[in-house]
Amino acid sequence: MYKNLAAALAAACCLLPVFSQTPEPLKVGFVYVTPLSDTGWVRQHDEGRKAVEAALGSRVRTRYVENVAEGPDAERVIRDLAQQGHRLIFTPSFGYMEPTLKVAREFPGVRFESITGYKTAANVAVANARYYEGRYLAGVAAGRVTKSHVAGYVAGFPIPEVLQGINAFALGMRSVDPRAEVRVVWINTWFDPARERDAAMTLFAQDADVIAFHTASTAVMAAAQERGKWAVAYHSDMRGVAPDVQLLAVTHHWGDYYTRRARAVLDGSWQPGTVWGGVKEGMIRVGDFSRRVPQAVREEVLARQRDIAAGRLHPFHAVSDIFDSDGRRVIAAGTTLSDAQILGMDWLVRGVQGRK
After folding, report:
1. Total number of domains constituting the chain
2. Which CATH number fits the domain that encloses residue 69?
3. Per residue in 79-111, pLDDT tens?
4. Radius of gyration, CA atoms only, the chain
5. Whole-structure pTM over 0.85, yes or no?
6. pLDDT tens digits, residue range 29-66?
7. Is residue 186 within a helix (H) or strand (E), and if so which, with residue range?
8. Domain around 109
9. Is the domain of 310 the same as that of 271?
10. Pair 54, 107 in one domain
């Protein structure tokens, strides 16, 4: 009896090291530039965070910090996450790029993902989406529904990503309505609902009967609903705010990318690099039309979305010469802008009013 008991105890003791070697979950941190709300830029990234948890289960533990200003505050938060043992940190805002690089130098064992940034390092990767593809498609829809031939655009900062979107929107609109104009109001912030609303109202007063925006709240959508003007939702579906006037939504989808990057850290295959995905990769999608949008418009937009995915359509391909607002030729007939040219875009296409 005692002999059997001793053998059983010895066997149990042999199992203890196995249990103690169970790996700790990968701690993944996310830094958000605005408060987390039901829609918008931050919401879409948080959906990506949730997708990581759903796909990897107990192998990961995620945490987010919201409403973190770009600059010194971002640096502090990113550093805190690294000090707390997060081995993968996503920083989805352009203004987080430099703080991310600075903290990354202090924590070479931590992997960082600078979303919308463009500078890499040994432990810093960058990723972005081809938002301009969705903007072009939204412009096609806007060109089909406008009666005034004027669209408004509320914009945050004149960085290449925003300029790409404005230009693609204008080119898409003018592809079906050559008389179309796009009027831009710059507010020099990503999130200020009151200023976003004021800008929208200013544009409505300037004859805009359809409006788009590159900011982070739903204020423009709410203003359009109030005035009965068509509006293009950005980042996520905003029919909850503007059920009658949402022309369509340009939505971003980060779950697949975030999951792949977390899995790469877990299996040791993570490498720094640059990813720029769009409609083809499932990172950008248009849809979520209001019930009031004519079926013919829906079908045309979705057909062009399929063309982009298949490589048959590029928003920055010129059938004839394309000029900027100063009259300078920026895309020669028969040519397509390269990725490098798109990423360095610093001009507004002819037909856009609103100096950057």
Report:
1. 2
2. 3.40.50.2300
3. 999 999 999 999 999 999 999 999 999 999 999
4. 24
5. yes
6. 999 999 999 999 999 999 999 999 999 999 999 999 99
7. strand 181-186
8. 26-129+254-277
9. no
10. yes
